[in-house]
UniProtKB/TrEMBL annotation:
Protein name in the entry: HelD family protein
Pfam family, one: UvrD_C_2
Annotated keywords: ATP-binding, Helicase, Hydrolase, Nucleotide-binding
Binding site for ATP: G218, A219, A220, G221, S222, G223, K224, T225
Region annotation Disordered: where it falls in the sequence: 1-24
PROSITE patterns noted in UniProt: UVRD_HELICASE_ATP_BIND (PS51198)
Length: 734
């Protein structure tokens, strides 16, 4: 059944029956008034003659700031708002308009002004909740009388939909109607914002008190990633006060670079284009200063290729233990012992010249240095032991020599060389990669903390991955990377590089959070302001249980919060796909996940199309044509492996089908017809998806991991899904 061209603001016109709402003309008038008020304000800001201050410099600054305001507001002229709220406070009724950007209509005045409140303000939240009462800041009781969605595009009102109306008996069902209209739209080449249709439970998760670490748990398509980005934007609002975050001081971590680039496209729409988006591995190797390091996942290779169950179990348990949060203290105890040993026999004695004073000597005995280092360990500095020890010795010198502030620069310069050489003797041999491996290869080093029992130490010393080759280049395995990062964090520091110093991130968002170890969480918590980590994940979708936490409690335990301890918030509905696609996905997921019963938005679509028993490339080409004939431009062909995608993209040429391959992390998704392996498709979504090789040979039915991959492949489509096999289709989807 070919899908009709789904409606979108672009192809809706006011002549639709939507304009039949009795207040449509009134709202139209109001919109014209708001646009005029905004235009007037933009003119005022752009008029450099008006923005004059006491002197030239102040005038230039004022004019620049005004121009910046004008530029920010101009972006929102075409859609000043998307909804309104009729509220009653203290016996007075008022209508508030809600948009993506706040606007204060100075000229219009408080009464008939065309003000717009921002979606991420406290008042804006009232548009999304289910509750009908609230306590305004000034006290008293506020009541919601009406919630109204206003579809606006290109300064035109397209549709008026009441979501709740006191006078019409309360809930109108309009919220679901608006949501379904939105979900019928075609996919784009980037993640979209959902500011206009945020659902109540998503709104609540997004607005969990700032300063509280949160873990958003939800099934595939429940909007976790989307909500994580919205929370980040919400964190930038001035109303968050001391918790307010700066875009450039935040970080988003996505599981691969293709997804990172796809998701980052939502940032400008949310008004936060400057947020860095990267992957945990890229961030880790960058911090280690080893950008060329190849990151492997040899445990995964072993789990997929080795049939010796005992060895597989050993590899799994060892990887789990490497990511255990206790490893931070294991590393800590080991390197502290190492540095204290290296300090033995060291002392410092230096002649210092200070003009106008007799020759001075600054000296530190081994015992004194030892005491300073213990103080540094106790302070647990963000900058790491090395920098903090240097600062401690310098502070000691300035205090002992009792020099003026002006003289201190010269004193520190004279101390610099001998101090660097002392630091070299104590810390130099500790590079994160070698030290982590030294620790993991020594029973003695592993036992220093007293945290690991003999069985655990033996497990870490074992090498179940022996048979899996290592690359020729310098490499690190994903399972050992967090231990290396722990060495780095404690010795050289961890956080956001600002010039030559490290500062904590204002806020960090971690996607696919079920695939990262508690140790990584402990390190991220260290690198970030307290309580400012948002993790998005689904324990049921875990592809890499050996790397991830066994439960969210293990993560909560290592995430301190300044405004409350870590909370797990669950999103219960899924939004991505039509009923037909959601049902097929649920069938696959139910084979490994008893909690697979997710509630999807009930949206009807095309039947799932099946193509089998023929020439593979010809069948895929036919599926692509069918998807396009059904009106879908963004079509993905999902393969099991990158090599299949490369081969098929060539073979498809013989069938007049051009599919762009996305087979490495360096490729970017730009829309159109693409062909990509399932590991790079995770997190992406397309109007139509075609699962290539959807058969039991490719996705081994007896292996849970393979069934999980089949689920990921089959759950990428919004509207149209095709399943292809040269032979019979996989029993789970046939
Ligand atoms: N409130 C909403 N309004 C409109 N669309 C929504 C809403 N919430 C989610 N969506 C849409 O649902 C789809 C899935 O969202 P998203 O990718 O954030 O989910 P996810 O939980 O991270 O999925 P996965 O686990 O598969 O990565 C996207 O197309 C998103 O735009």
């Amino acid at each position: 059944m070919p899908a009709a061209q789904p409606p979108s603001p672009a192809n809706l016109t006011p002549s639709d029956k939507a304009s039949s709402h009795p207040e449509f003309p009134l709202e139209q008038q109001r919109l014209a008034g708001t646009v005029a008020a905004m235009l007037h304000q933009i003119d005022v800001w752009e008029d450099r003659q008006r923005n004059v201050g006491a002197d030239l410099e102040t005038s230039v600054t004022m004019a620049d700031i005004a121009e910046e305001h004008a530029a920010m507001l101009s972006v929102h002229l075409s859609q000043p708002y998307f909804g309104s709220l009729r509220v009653r406070v203290g016996g007075r009724e008022q209508t508030l308009y809600v948009g993506k950007h706040a606007f204060l209509d100075v000229k219009g005045g408080a009464k008939e002004g065309h003000n717009v409140v921002s979606w991420d303000s406290e008042v804006g939240s009232l548009f999304y909740t289910q509750s009908l009462n609230w306590t305004p800041r000034r006290g008293g009781l506020g009541t919601i009388r009406r919630r109204r969605q206003l579809d606006v595009a290109a300064k035109q009102l397209l549709r008026v939909t009441d979501l709740y109306d006191d006078e019409a008996g309360g809930d109108t069902g309009g919220r679901e109607e608006v949501l379904i209209r939105r979900l019928r739209e075609q996919s784009t080449a980037g993640m979209r914002d959902v500011v206009e249709t945020l659902q109540p439970e998503q709104n609540e998760a997004m607005r969990a008190p700032a300063g509280t670490p949160i873990i958003i748990q939800g099934a595939a398509g429940s909007g976790k990633t989307t909500i994580g980005f919205h929370r980040l934007a919400w964190m930038m609002n001035a109303e968050r006060r001391e918790h307010r975050a700066r875009p450039e001081a935040c970080m988003v971590l996505m599981p691969n670079k293709v997804l990172a680039a796809y998701a980052a496209r939502v940032l400008p729409d949310l008004g936060i284009p400057a947020v860095p988006v990267t992957t945990p591995e890229a961030w880790a190797v960058g911090l280690l200063g080893l950008e060329k390091l190849e990151v492997t996942d040899r445990t995964l290779t072993l789990l997929l290729t080795d049939h010796d169950n005992a060895r597989r179990a050993l590899a799994w348990r060892r990887a789990k233990l490497l990511g255990d949060a206790r490893m931070l203290d294991v590393v800590r105890a080991h390197i502290q012992a190492k540095f204290l040993t290296a300090l033995q026999g060291q002392r410092l004695q230096e002649q210092i010249e200070v003009p106008g004073r007799d020759a001075l000597t600054f000296s530190q005995t081994e015992q004194e240095l030892h005491a300073l280092l213990l103080d540094v360990f106790a302070a647990d500095p963000l900058s790491g032991y090395r920098a903090a020890f240097r600062a401690a010795v310098e502070a000691e010198a300035l205090a002992r020599l009792n020099v003026s502030e002006a003289q201190s620069v010269s004193v520190l310069r004279q101390l610099s060389v001998p101090l660097t050489s002392l630091l070299g003797r104590v810390f130099a041999s500790t590079t994160p990669v070698t030290e982590a491996r030294r620790l993991l290869g020594s029973a003695e080093a592993l036992s220093v903390s007293g945290l690991l029992n003999d069985r655990e130490i033996r497990l870490l010393l074992a090498d179940p991955l022996q048979s899996i080759p290592n690359p020729r280049r310098a490499h690190a395995d994903v399972t050992e990377l967090p231990v290396m990062l722990a060495v780095q964090a404690l010795t050289g520091g961890i956080g956001r590089q600002v010039g030559r110093t490290l500062e904590p991130f204002d806020h960090v968002v971690l996607d696919e959070a079920q695939d990262y170890s508690p140790l990584l969480y402990a390190l991220l918590a260290r690198a970030t302001r307290e309580g400012h980590l948002t993790a998005l994940g689904d324990l049921n979708q875990g592809m890499h249980g050996y790397k991830g936490p066994s439960n969210w409690e293990a993560v909560q335990a290592v995430l301190p919060g300044s405004a409350g301890s870590a909370r797990v918030l669950t999103l219960s509905r899924t939004y991505r796909s039509t009923r037909q696609i959601t049902e097929l996905g649920a069938r696959i997921a139910s084979t490994y996940n008893r909690a697979a019963d997710v509630v999807g938005v009930d949206r009807d679509g095309a039947e799932v199309q099946r193509y089998s028993n023929g020439v593979e490339a010809a069948l895929i080409a036919r599926a692509v044509k069918d998807a396009q004939a059904a009106g879908h431009e963004n079509v993905a062909i999902v393969t099991r492996r990158a090599a299949d995608a490369d081969r098929l993209s060539t073979e498809l040429h013989d069938h007049d089908t051009d599919a762009q391959p996305i087979t490495t992390q360096e490729h970017r998704y730009r829309g159109g017809v693409v062909i990509l392996p399932v590991n790079l498709a995770k997190g992406l979504e397309f109007s139509a998806a075609i699962v290539a090789n959807a058969d039991a040979d490719t996705y081994d039915e007896s292996t849970e991991y393979e069934r999980r991959l089949l689920y990921v492949s089959a759950s990428r489509a919004l509207h149209w899904l095709g399943l292809v096999s040269a032979g019979d289709l996989h029993p789970l989807v046939g």
